[in-house]
């Protein structure tokens, strides 16, 4: 990250990427969880994707 200028756009892009990466990790964990935990993880995953979409200016 040396030499990168930190801007609001850069921060926004990193937040969007972070939301999508965490959502992907959660999706991989869903198949190994008991049903009650999987349901809660699925809600968190959906919420992260909604946040990423809102940051990008999209609506679901």
What does the model show?
The protein is an all-alpha fold and 60 residues long. The protein has helices spanning 8-30, 35-56. Helix 1 (8-30) packs antiparallel against helix 2. The longest helix is centred in the first third of the chain and has 23 residues, at 8-30. The radius of gyration is 14 Å and the shape is elongated. The model has no long low-confidence stretch (mean pLDDT 84).
Would you list the SSEs in sequence order as H and E?
HH
Number of DSSP strands? 0
Question: Tell me about the biggest sheet?
Answer: none
| Overall pLDDT level | 84
- What is the radius of gyration? 14 Å
Give the N-terminus to C-terminus distance in angstroms: 33 Å
Structural class: mainly alpha
What percentage of the residues does DSSP assign to strands (E)?
A: under 5%
Inertia-based shape: elongated
Helicity level, as a percent range?
over 70%
Number of helices: 2
Low-confidence stretches: none
